[in-house]
Fold this protein.
Amino acid sequence: MIKAIIFDWFGVCTVENWADVLGRELSSKLNLDVSFVKEKYKPLIQPFARAELSPEQFLEQFIGSLDKSKNPQDFNYLFETIPKLNFELLNYILELKKKYPVFLLSNNFGPVFPNYEKQVDFNKYFDKLFLSHKLKMSKTQDGIWDKVLPEIEFKPNELVFIDNKEKYFEPAKKHGINTVLFLSNDQAKKELADLGVKVD
């Protein structure tokens, strides 16, 4: 029986990933192909999520890999260029929270997350937040669950983790945690219902 639910943030509680937004913005600004922008972003995402790169280092490496003639500090605005919220899902989470503890586990970024705190009262939706930049560990690492599980008073098989990327499920499954791959709001709700998660 599922007793608590863990949601990812980007691409689940938001309508797309930060990489999608950055791809569009920098493709337009620097006249580059979106796929090229994402390719250069990809190797930086995990170390930035673990706070191994400062915001300045992230911009230096990212913008430098795209156009060495640009001043990276001119791109600080990218930390405020973030995906829109998935309000339908957030409203569903409010309903879930009436019956279940709900947690957030997110690969997030020190200079990005405060911009969501301006929009969202996270305590309204989640009982506890587990953020990679504060844990200094990302969702690709097995050890992240060793940090999260002691903070959640449930057995792994009583938890379900919803994420939009399968690569983050391997560490969760090693611990015996149920998983749902997020493809759409309706699909995720159905799969949770199939696991016995009810909101009414």
